[in-house]
Amino acid sequence: MIEITVRAVSTLKTKFQTPAVVPLPEGSTVKDLLSACEVDHNRVIVLLNNMQVNINHKLNHSDQVTILPFIIGG
Amino acid sequence: MKLKGYAGKQLRVQLTDAVIKEEEINLELLKKYLGGVGYGARLLYDELAPHIDALSAENKIVFTTGPLTGKNIPGGGSVEVCFKSPLTNLWGESRCGGNFGPELKASGYDFLIVEGKSDRPVYLLITAGGVQIKDAGHLLGKTVGEKTQIIREENKDAKLSVMCIGPAGENKVLFSTIMDEDRAAGRCGAGAVMGSKNLLAIAVRGSQKIEAEHPEKFRDATRKAMKAVRENPNTENFKEHGTVGDIASCDLLGDWPTQNWRSNSWGKGEELYNYFYEHNLVGNFGCYSGCPVGCGRMVKVDEGRFKTPVHGGAEYESITAFTAFVTNDNMDAAVHSTYLCNEYGIDTISMGAVIAFAMECYEKGLIKPEDTGNLDLSWGNPEVLPLLVKQVAEREGLGNLLADGVMRAADKLGHSAKEFAIHGKGLEAPAHDPRSSKALAVTYGTANRGLCHIHPLEGQAYDLGKSDFGLIPHGLKDPEEVDRWDAKDKGKMVKILQDGLVLPDILVNCKFMMYCGFTIKHFADIVSGLTGWDITEEELLKIGERTINIQRLFNVREGCSAADDMIPERMKSLPQFGRYKDEARCAIVNYADMLEDYYLARGWDKNGIPTRDKLASLNL
Ligand code: SF4
């Protein structure tokens, strides 16, 4: 198992209090993390250790992830 | 045979001699440009002499609708205003949401052309009873809300759709707006053009129905488009948080111009939005009856010195201009100031930008306390924000210098002021930062109306937001495979994006629908059902390209060239502070290469002039 620290920006409705530590199986991707958090991957941008990553990016133990609700066109 | 999908006529009002004329639409021109900023650009290119003074009787202002204007079409509560801009002395256009566009069309006119200059203040009334030029002496000096109310009351029609200027337009503030209640034709100084003609307002109420050539096909295409919008994830975001909900994310992404562009992030976006959500937000609204998105914010400030009644406003751009631009962290002051801008008829973006510029001048000693009437223009001082809005609207004190925009103010102040007057073609820069995504740099530099917030946004939405707008079959690279900081191919991609994303302004529809699921295919199907012309996606993109080229020709005739497509140095440089200050990739070092790549894709020469071959291929 790996553990990822997740912070969601306040405008994103989540089912959990952030920051939260989310356990995931080895080899999990950003997409897996988003589904574990019940966040629609079409509506967000994900920063990993401050860099934007795409949903297929593989996560490592103790990665810090920020989920941003991105209002395209704002 | 009656033209379907359109009203079929245009109205020409010549104010100098008070002549009102109804004209047939030129069908050949309509098929080439469809409407909106396409038809408007061709008309002004043909009818305006080059180098006229934008605030003289020789300028014209055209209120345009298009085939997708109508309350029964998602995003159809729109009007596009076209004119020569007094701020840039180039092509000027500005969209306004609201009922005005649909009402104008329902009163029998696709286009309203206003020319000449009245010798006294007047307003136009367009109803089933005819078209009248009415005295407006009693409206002088009134705010937007007051003018709207008086016009409705004296004509005993609470549903009259009214577009009017505020005191700023009367005083010819070069970035004054034309307002439809809380919505604005905001950029490029349309309000000053109306003010220069002594035309204070236009009120319209129509009752005619627009028929479709193939009603079944039209209904089906509209239903499909509506479904796509309703199901798009961005729609929910827009509804819940409006455009302003993006300040936290943009701050984190390095897309939040801060302290007159010294940085692209501030670190206070989330905290500010949380305060706004809790204290200022009342609810959402659509800028016309029937909008399926309803991104508008109803907001207020309950108490204190910035107390503000409930009103529609607080857009992402407006709030950024009065917070990050000037590093003010008092959200109540920002909400209050943007409310005042709407009531005085001032563009919130340019207003915030001129204050940021003035604050930097103050810091550097180019503007001294005695020049400000002893106002303290230190960064972040919330007290001066509403005061400066009023001073600009009335052209009082320092307001008179700022009312002409940063480019002219910097010329007058001299010294180093030019280096931090952040504008493109004379239009003050808006609230997204190209240090977050390279495509935005190219869309910023090449937008025909200058450094605006509407046309260039597709660059950011593509590079950062990973939107493709259904343009992949038309040559757009999949945004998921594109690095936002990479310059490669960005010029080429911008050409494709621009040709597609200009379409809402041609069809006169809200561009946000394209951020919420509308694609070129939806447009093609709706226009075909309406007009019976069987328009394909390729033809629409060609009309987009033709429109961009005719607007460019308008600008070239005014002397515009590659030098005017440059973006300010500060906008390309590594941020001076904030979370990206050590992130070398956000600096823009190869802008000239991207621009060359763009010109090549456009078929323009190295100086940014459309080639003869290109013009011939577009039947121009
Ligand atoms: S999406 Fe927003 S801006 Fe567009 S028409 Fe609807 S309310 Fe107006």
Give the structure's gist in a few sentences.
The complex is a heterodimer of chains A (about 70) and B (about 625). Chain A is mainly beta. Chain A has one helix at about 30-35, and strands at about 1-10, 20-25, 45-50, 50-55, 65-70.
Report strand order across the widest sheet of chain B.
2-1-6-3-4-5
The CATH architecture classification of chain A is Roll
Sheet/helix structural class of chain B: alpha+beta
CATH topology (level 3) name of the largest domain in chain B: Aldehyde Ferredoxin Oxidoreductase,  A, domain 1
Please tally the helical runs of chain A, counting DSSP H or I stretches of 4 or more residues: 1
What key phrases describe this protein's structure?
heterodimer; A: 74 residues; mainly beta; Ubiquitin-like (UB roll); five-stranded mixed beta sheet; 1 helix; 9% helix; globular; B: 620 residues; alpha+beta; Aldehyde Ferredoxin Oxidoreductase,  A, domain 1; Aldehyde Ferredoxin Oxidoreductase Protein, subunit A, domain 2; Aldehyde Ferredoxin Oxidoreductase Protein, subunit A, domain 3; six-stranded mixed beta sheet; four-stranded mixed beta sheet; 26 helices; 40% helix; binds iron/sulfur cluster
